[in-house]
Design brief:
This protein is mostly helical and 299 residues long. The chain contains twelve helices and no strands.
């Protein structure tokens, strides 16, 4: 029994490590996409898909696991679900790039502030995860923070809501599927890539594509596959090891970093509303974290 508990703690610690890698990477990702803001969002999205496939295929080949990929392709019930998660992923990627490159980083950060609340909600509904008093209090604080932000927004933040909904359901479906993270992500990107390849070919035949343009843009477009795939791999690895509610709270790293970048690096406004929202959310995060450590220490 003790060995089982220790192994569970070890798995949780590994999961937290993966989560920190994923969410911190996503936090700094706007800087990368800003370097490509002269290229249409749809073209950047297409390159994300294509180069992600090649990068992931390379990883599987190095690990000598291409057989797992082939086996998964022969499992229709999983392919159908992965087609759904691929569509969620594609929508999320496009909306995010569009938001960053149209100077709406603050609204994209709002989406990722809302996202953990959906994670917690979906975790309690579909995974039957239960919150104790302190976790409920933490969730309440975070919810108040997000509602405060929404109240001041004065319009429907469609970018934020799209990001939150698509990624919450993506994470839930991937957590529920008995498919290894790397192989599953490769299948998702393969399912998306035919559209991307066709569009890239058309753009380059028309002379409007950027793959043959400035070398710096070419490198960044190719690198999009790496910066797309690695955080998602870390995220799905974390999701396999952590409660979905725990994952939701660690997720607050991403929008916090994004908001700081938007305000201090790209001079987007930071108002008293932002300050109140930050204060409430981080208070909730501190409460949740302290409770998590106390709970772990008592088991």
């Amino acid at each position: 029994m003790d060995n089982y508990i220790k192994s569970q703690h070890t798995e949780a610690q590994i999961g937290i490590g993966y989560a920190l890698l994923a969410f911190s990477s996503w936090g700094f990702l706007p800087i990368y996409w800003k370097l490509l803001d002269t290229i249409p969002s749809l073209e950047v999205l297409a390159h994300r898909m294509v180069w992600s496939v090649l990068f992931l295929l390379g990883l599987l080949a190095i690990q000598k696991r291409l057989g797992e990929f082939q086996d998964l392709l022969k499992t229709p019930k999983y392919i159908c679900v992965l087609l759904g998660t691929a569509m969620l992923l594609g929508i999320n990627w496009f909306v995010y790039i569009y938001g960053v490159n149209t100077n709406q980083i603050v609204e994209t950060s709002l989406g990722y502030f809302i996202n953990p609340l959906f994670n917690v909600l979906l975790g309690t509904i579909f995974l039957k995860e239960r919150l104790n008093y302190w976790q409920s209090l933490a969730l309440g604080m975070a919810t108040l923070g997000v509602l405060n932000f929404l109240w001041d927004f004065n319009s429907l933040p469609w970018i934020a809501l799209s990001l939150a909904l698509t990624f919450s359901f993506y994470g839930l479906l991937r957590k529920m599927m008995p498919v290894k993270p790397l192989v599953g992500l490769l299948v998702e990107t393969v399912l998306l890539s035919p559209f991307a390849v066709v569009m890239i070919v058309i753009w380059n035949l028309e002379g409007t594509g950027n793959i043959g343009g400035e070398w710096s843009n070419v490198i960044l477009l190719v690198g999009a596959g790496v910066v797309t795939s690695l955080p998602l791999l870390w995220f799905t690895n974390a999701g396999k090891r952590l409660r979905y509610t725990t994952l939701g709270f660690i997720h607050y790293m991403t929008p916090s970093i994004q908001l700081v970048i938007g305000v201090y690096l790209y001079n987007e406004p930071f108002t008293s509303t932002h300050a109140v929202t930050f204060g409430l959310i981080w208070t909730g995060l501190i409460i949740y974290s302290i409770n998590a450590f106390q709970t772990q220490g008592s088991t």
